[in-house]
Specification:
- The chain contains nine helices and twelve strands.
- The chain has about 350 residues and is α/β, with parallel strands linked by helices.
- It has one domain: Rossmann fold.
- It has an eight-stranded mixed β-sheet, sandwiched between helices. The chain has a two-stranded antiparallel sheet with strand order 2-3.
- Helix 1 links the parallel strand 5 and strand 6.
- Helix 5 packs across helix 6.
- The termini are far apart.
Length: about 350
């Protein structure tokens, strides 16, 4: 009898606790386009779902990833712990994770989706996520000089579509189609997908039950380096203001309070910011814009809840479970009685 093979050096399946769940995936098809006599598909969206054996929460949660990355940012953390997706499943939610069109498993080809933006660099990753000179940032999950960990972290990143307005419009259209298929849900966004939350609610106000935005891209009317301009205030794509406007300059120069976003009225919105993130300062102006337009956005600054040391990657930093706790508490106060 031959000897059993040695356990591989890297075998997380040997040590990860068993998870009793249901899981699957499906596609939101893209648009048919004709090129040189052939038919192609543009902008499909991959959706992966997971649920506990017994779903106890009334509405599912849809997790939307940040710019250039993919839905895997909600999975296991860079240091191997369960991420927010798993923790939300454990809390009784059915959880759907999307790869936004042109990201991750949602295919990108320039002939069907338009030009790509620049590639995502190691230097960009360090600038966005690493502690840098801020001594308050203590929760990043691997050492800055851990080259192997950095290689694995950057591996999931790709370019964004070059046209930010078109990309956000496509995201919102596919998300609206997803809600049409599954029914009411809660949106959780991160960074560059933050504007998508406002756009999806604008399209399907009766189907978006709450939005949790983790350091959404902003502030209003900002020019985001290597990404694009937020020409419509909190978004790059048009919103349905009342009274109606036909050009973003009308939004930029409007007197505060004269333009409303009826789709956001009464919608629970939570904007989460971290202690040591340079991106956190964009969130108060975003909340103020939404509220002036008739929304009811609340700011949740993690240090105010005793959660310290986080940067922009708070959803997968060393204390990611602690960062999720006040979000779960907020959702519990604004959701129907669990079933």
């Amino acid at each position: 009898m031959s000897k059993p093979e040695a356990t591989p050096a890297y075998a997380p399946w040997e040590t990860t606790p068993a998870r009793t769940v249901r899981r699957g995936h499906f596609w939101l098809p893209g648009d048919r386009v004709s090129l040189a006599g052939n038919t192609y598909q543009s902008g499909p969206m991959f959706v992966e779902w997971e649920a506990p054996d017994q779903v106890t929460q009334s509405w599912p949660i849809i997790l939307m990833h940040g710019g250039g990355f993919q839905g895997t940012e909600w999975f296991d953390t860079p240091d191997g712990r369960p991420g927010w997706k798993q923790r939300l499943v454990e809390a009784g939610y059915a959880v759907l994770v999307v790869d936004r069109p042109g990201h991750g498993r949602s295919p990108f080809h320039v002939e069907t989706l338009g030009d790509m933006g620049p590639p995502f660099s190691y230097e960009g990753g360090r600038q966005i996520y690493f502690p840098g000179d801020d001594e308050r940032h203590t929760q990043w999950p691997f050492a800055p000089d851990d080259d192997a960990a950095m290689d694995e972290f950057i591996a999931g990143y790709g370019p964004l579509p070059a046209d930010l307005e078109a990309s956000q419009t496509l995201d919102a259209d596919r998300m609206a189609a997803l809600l049409d298929r599954i029914g009411p849900a809660i949106l959780v966004t991160h960074s560059a997908s933050g504007p998508d939350g406002w756009l999806v609610a604008d399209r399907r106000p009766q189907l978006v039950k709450a939005i949790v935005a983790i350091e959404p891209m902003g502030p209003p009317f900002a020019e985001i380096p290597n990404i694009g301009a937020m020409t419509w205030g909190p978004t790059a794509a048009p919103l349905l203001f009342k009274p109606a406007v036909s050009h973003p300059d009308e939004v930029k120069h409007a007197e505060p309070g004269t333009l409303k976003l009826p789709s956001l009225a009464g919608l629970p919105i939570l904007i989460v910011t971290a202690e040591a993130s340079a991106f956190a300062k964009a969130s108060p102006p975003t909340a103020a814009f939404l509220n002036t337009a008739g929304g009811s956005a609340e700011l949740l600054h993690l240090p105010d809840h005793g959660i310290h040391g986080n940067g922009h990657g708070l959803i997968y930093e060393k204390n990611s479970d602690a960062a999720l706790a006040p979000v779960l508490a907020w959702l519990a106060q604004r959701s129907p009685v669990s079933r």
